[in-house]
Design a protein that fits this description.
By secondary structure, the protein is mostly helical. The longest helix has 18 residues. The chain is flat, with a radius of gyration of 34 Å.
């Protein structure tokens, strides 16, 4: 205790804060009896004389740990006077920390103790002249209410009603933010009588901020009114009143909340009544509203459509063209990100065609994020298509040379995704041929991420087309592009390193004899390269291909090459990986 007192009363603010944070440890060390008496008495005295708000915040937070060291829930009431005093402080952060801990304590205290110890404190806070305790007490009501008797519950409802219409906007806001939680613990019977009546009045408030908070209350109350019929009869009529609100803030909040309401409402109510409201929000004149609405495109379509009825997606598809041409970059980006999921969910050539047309517009967007998102969406739909639309394939081609490297990377991924769909299709042979050419060109790209992505996608092509196709069609051209002989004139060692990455990836889809014939010579050559970085990559590549080779090839070709590296190499990193490769080779039988 002496050390604690010295630290809490130190002139250094940081020492005071650190001491307050350790109160839980101190309380445990003192034992329950001393913690309930000596510690709490000192902290009450300390709170009255200190002017350090940071220390008081730490104190308010630490009291939740102290509460667990007082000897059980029946003794937690000892903290109420101190917590109550903290909620009367001037600084909001101090009051918030104390109120949070106070609510935790109330949730663990026995009912009798709450009636005896907490109710007088709650009344004092709810009727205080100073606004801070009136702000804090709203957070405490949901924790105390379930454990109170009938008469005490009526008092809490009365206090809450007063706070809800308080002249101070901060008090009023706090009451609204906690109204949903209080309504949930009231139970449906009392909630229908009291909470819904209060909520109806909030929905008619003049302040748009209050009406906006009403939607938050409705979302919180979904925990209680989570059945479709209950929701339709109770909350939905109140929400509908806000659908045509003149305030953009309310409409924005509604746009963000509708998918959650639709999930509870069920596809029938969501599709019939909510979807038209949502589409109107997508067409809203305010950019902020459209941004909030487009962020939930997929979720809203999911909850307003069923496997038997995709009409909701069809309705939303009709407004996508206008959205993808919106002046707001954020709106266009969010729409482009949703296109793949919407196309996967849709049924019918008309809806699918509309979404594909929107994609054609989106991939031409001036913003790189929109183009990237669209290419990601194209990858998603490729997995669900039995054949690739020729027009969509044509749209992809210009992105092979896009100035933004992230767009080029997404082009490689999207094109390879379509390659799996077009495999064996004669009408798309030109697309596939051009794709391979682009992938090989990307092996020399000035951006390392593009080179690495090209290696990954070329390996994927070998997996799709088969190893026979890989060694006949792909490897000759790829090795030609990255071979040391060709690149020696340019002294481009990076391309040779890329070749090693490519062969390491492709080897996973080749037979041992194919690896020995087409991969090993390049690795052996690179182990003798004049550039240290190339030898480093070659040693690592050897470690990856050795497990895939026959033991004879490893013993006669790879091991001698690695031993040569060991003899003359000065670089410790290269030696490390060469030794690692030899160790792997030694364990191969």
């Amino acid at each position: 205790m002496r050390i604690l007192k010295d630290d809490l009363e130190d002139e250094d603010v940081i020492i005071q804060v650190e001491a307050a944070k350790k109160l839980g440890v101190i309380a445990k060390a003192l034992g329950a009896q001393k913690a309930r008496t000596e510690l709490i008495e000192y902290l009450e005295a300390y709170e009255k004389k200190t002017e350090n708000d940071e220390a008081l915040v730490a104190l308010g937070e630490a009291l939740s740990k102290v509460a667990k060291c007082l000897g059980g829930p029946e003794h937690m009431g000892n903290l109420i006077p101190l917590l109550e005093t903290l909620t009367f402080q001037e600084e909001t952060v101090v009051c918030e920390a104390a109120a949070t801990t106070y609510a935790e304590v109330l949730s663990q205290m026995p009912s009798n103790d709450i009636e005896k110890s907490a109710m007088p404190s709650l009344e004092k806070m709810a009727t205080a002249n100073w606004f801070q305790p009136r702000v804090s007490v709203s957070k405490l009501f949901p924790a105390a209410f379930p454990k109170l008797g009938e008469s005490s519950q009526e008092k809490v409802i009365k206090w809450f009603n007063t706070l809800r219409v308080d002249d101070n906007p901060m008090v009023k806001k706090a009451a609204l933010l906690n109204m949903g939680a209080l309504a949930n613990v009231m139970g449906k019977k009392k909630g229908s009588i009291n909470a819904l009546k209060m909520l109806k009045e909030v929905c008619e408030e003049e302040s748009d901020f209050m009406r906006m908070y009403a939607l938050d209350v409705c979302k919180e109350m979904l925990k209680s009114y989570n059945e479709t019929k209950e929701f339709k009869d109770t909350l939905w009529p109140l929400i509908k009143k806000l659908t045509g609100d003149t305030s953009w803030r309310v409409r924005k909040q509604l746009a963000s909340s509708l998918p959650e309401f639709a999930k509870t409402a069920g596809t029938m109510l969501a599709g019939r009544e909510m979807l038209p409201i949502y589409i109107a929000l997508l067409k809203d004149n305010e950019s902020e509203v459209k941004t909030a609405a487009t962020a939930n495109l997929v979720e809203m379509c999911k909850h307003s459509s069923s496997p038997k009825n995709k009409e909701g997606i069809a309705q939303v598809a009709t407004v996508l063209k206008d959205l993808i041409e919106d002046t707001s970059q954020v709106v266009r980006a969010q729409v482009s990100k949703s296109l793949g999921d919407l196309a996967a969910m849709s049924e019918g050539k008309t809806t699918e065609g509309i979404i594909f047309d929107v994609m054609k517009l989106a991939v031409k967007d001036e913003d790189a994020v929109v183009r990237c998102n669209t290419l990601e969406s194209i990858q998603k739909i490729a997995k669900n298509l039995k054949s690739a639309p020729a027009t969509l394939l044509q749209v992809l081609q210009p992105f092979a040379s896009d100035p933004k490297w992230r767009v080029r990377r997404e082009y490689l991924r999207a094109s390879t995704a379509f390659a799996s769909v077009t495999a064996g299709s004669s009408e798309n042979e030109g697309f596939e041929s051009k794709l391979i050419s682009n992938l090989i060109e990307c092996l020399s790209d000035h951006i390392s991420s593009i080179r690495e992505e090209a290696c990954v996608q070329l390996a994927t092509m070998v997996k799709i087309k088969g190893n026979a196709w890989g060694v006949k069609k792909l490897l000759p051209e790829a090795l030609k592009a990255v071979s040391q002989t060709e690149m020696a004139e340019q002294s481009n060692y990076i391309t040779r390193m890329t070749g090693l990455i490519l062969l390491s990836n492709v080897s996973a889809h080749l037979s041992p004899s194919q690896i020995a014939e087409h991969v090993c010579p390049f690795i052996e050559q690179c182990l003798k390269d004049g550039v240290e970085n190339v030898r480093f990559k070659a040693a690592r590549a050897a470690s990856k291909v050795i497990p895939l080779l026959n033991a004879d090839v490893v013993r006669k070709r790879i091991v001698p090459a690695l031993e040569e590296v060991q003899k003359g190499e000065q670089d410790s990193d290269i030696l490390f990986y060469a030794e690692e490769a030899l160790y792997i080779a030694a364990s191969k039988k």
